[in-house]
Amino acid sequence: MLFPRRCSQCLISVTNRHAVVQRSCSTIQGEVRVRFAPSPTGFLHLGGLRTALYNYIFAKKYGGSFVLRLEDTDQSRLVPGAAESIEDMLEWAGVPPDESPRRGGLFGPYLQSRRLDLYTQAAQQLVESGNAYYCFCSSQRLELLKKEALRSGQTPRYDNRCRHLQLIQVRNKLDQGLPHVIRFRLETGVEPFQDMIFGWNHHDVAQVEGDPVVIKADGYPTYHLANIVDDHYMKISHVLRGSEWLISTSKHLLMYRALGWEPPTFGHLPLLMNKDGSKLSKRQGDIFIQSFQRDGVLPEALLDITTNCGSGFSTHRMGRRINELISEFSPSKITTHSALLDLEKLPEFNRIHLQHRIENEEQCRSLIRDLQGQIKQTFTTDIQDDGVIQEHYIKRVLQLRKGHISSLKELLTPVYSYLWVRPSFSSQQVAALTSEAQHIGSLVLKLVSERGEELALDQLSKDLKTLAKQTKITKHRELMKLLRLALSGLQWFSDQQQGPSVAEMMVCLGPAEIYHRFQNLLRVCESS
């Protein structure tokens, strides 16, 4: 599908807190190709997932391709396992790349460390055209420049000293094998560019920065060179990245011009921040995607909450799935405001999406398999009846608890352990509630016998109210506590827990298990 060419006459006014931003409604004609290019110096976190998600949605909205490229040129900071984990987490989250190190593709390799020849060629082209030069300044000299600048209250910057070396000087130093880098020659008079989100922008980087390094002393490229070389050869049509890169874009456009290449269209996404406006930091251990996965958060819930707090969509309702996000997405609706993320709302998002999964037959079967494994692992030898790990039983539990639980892990907490393990309680606990426990137990057994194999929640609720009238001295409140004690070993749920009603507990357990547990109540009464 073709994405319309940028129309300079068709401008959208976007009002932010500081100004009115003029920007174009669309971008270029041709195949849409976007990329997510993280560095495997760490694991995927929520901010990275959001950037990947917007790129994925953009690609799918316009029939394009979503590329994963790993920028692993900073070899000293690589984290073992991070590269594989990033792709694992994207696939888990439901935003799988079309091309990647794992999947391959026509424009690979997709690891920058395997594309060094391309960067070397581009750097050599820049040197030969006079747009870059060899720099032999030692790290000691650069550190002195930095200290001097800070001492005088200025921003540290390279003084471009080696820019003025004569050709013969450069050749002599290279012949001596002196350590060196290659720097790009920044020029003044940068042309403004139009960002898809922030509108017209202009940063005259030569006025505030020294010439940047493009090839390091170890022969590896810096981000500034590598990303434009890769975007060019991978035919990336749109670069959607965080707004922290907005100020560097003029520098990148100078490199495109120096190499004679057509740049992609740029769109800089506003930052994802904490609800109080503070920066979302990797030091917050709970923002890594693996942490959410481990805690039982559903990927759909993560995608929903990260888009719900931002912009770019026609609605902000909770419960949207990826196909709905794609359908409702519009680049023109992305604003410059930071997205304020309130992770305290995540359980509610997860509750909604867990309910969606339970109501989907195929996804429900997957939940059942997952829960079967977790039940066996959590309760192991405590399970007295294998019936509790059967599919029909777990499905009944899920259907009754949907809309009430926020994750499967809740069903493994002590509050719900009665579903999988028969409870124990003492005669003292029973006696503290009523002296009619034996009579009440017999009434329940009779009720269950009369109702047969199928227990209906509404009917059972009515039956329990009728049963309460058949006691002599036990009030309804104590009766419910006794029934809950016999069924679960608990008398009540705390204010923070929305536990099931007694009727629901009975429907979940089924007639055979109810019979077993109230027979146990009678035995406890007889032993006292």
TrEMBL record:
Record domain Glutamyl/glutaminyl-tRNA synthetase class Ib catalytic: where: 31-346
Kind of enzyme, top EC level?
Answer: ligase
GO cellular component terms attached to this protein's record: mitochondrion
Name the domain of life this protein comes from: Eukaryota
Where would I find the Aminoacyl-tRNA synthetase class I anticodon-binding domain in this sequence? 390-521
EC number(s) per entry: 6.1.1.17, 6.1.1.24
Stored SUPFAM superfamilies: An anticodon-binding domain of class I aminoacyl-tRNA synthetases (SSF48163), Nucleotidylyl transferase (SSF52374)
Q: Annotated Gene Ontology MF terms?
A: ATP binding; glutamate-tRNA ligase activity; glutamate-tRNA(Gln) ligase activity; tRNA binding; zinc ion binding
- Which InterPro entries does the protein's record reference? aa-tRNA-synth_I_cd-bd (IPR045462), aa-tRNA-synth_I_codon-bd_sub2 (IPR020751), aa-tRNA-synth_I_CS (IPR001412), aa_tRNA-synth_I_cd-bd_sf (IPR008925), Glu-tRNA-ligase_bac/mito (IPR004527), Glu/Gln-tRNA-synth (IPR000924), Glu/Gln-tRNA-synth_Ib_cat-dom (IPR020058), GluQ/Sye (IPR049940)
Arranged from A to Z, the UniProt key words for this protein are:
Aminoacyl-tRNA synthetase, ATP-binding, Ligase, Nucleotide-binding, Protein biosynthesis
Main location as per UniProt = mitochondrion
Q: Which CDD domains match?
A: GluRS_core
Keyword Cytoplasm tagged: no
The family database entries (Pfam families) matched by this protein are listed as: Anticodon_2, tRNA-synt_1c
GO BP, one annotated term: glutamyl-tRNA aminoacylation
Please list the reactions this protein catalyses.
Answer: tRNA(Gln) + L-glutamate + ATP = L-glutamyl-tRNA(Gln) + AMP + diphosphate; tRNA(Glx) + L-glutamate + ATP = L-glutamyl-tRNA(Glx) + AMP + diphosphate; tRNA(Glu) + L-glutamate + ATP = L-glutamyl-tRNA(Glu) + AMP + diphosphate
* Location(s) in or outside the cell: Mitochondrion
Signal sequence residues: none
- Give the matching NCBIfam families: gltX_bact (TIGR00464)
Q: Which family does it belong to?
A: Belongs to the class-I aminoacyl-tRNA synthetase family. Glutamate--tRNA ligase type 1 subfamily.
Q: Which PANTHER family match?
A: GLUTAMATE--TRNA LIGASE (PTHR43311), GLUTAMATE--TRNA LIGASE, MITOCHONDRIAL-RELATED (PTHR43311:SF2)
State the protein's name.
Answer: Nondiscriminating glutamyl-tRNA synthetase EARS2, mitochondrial
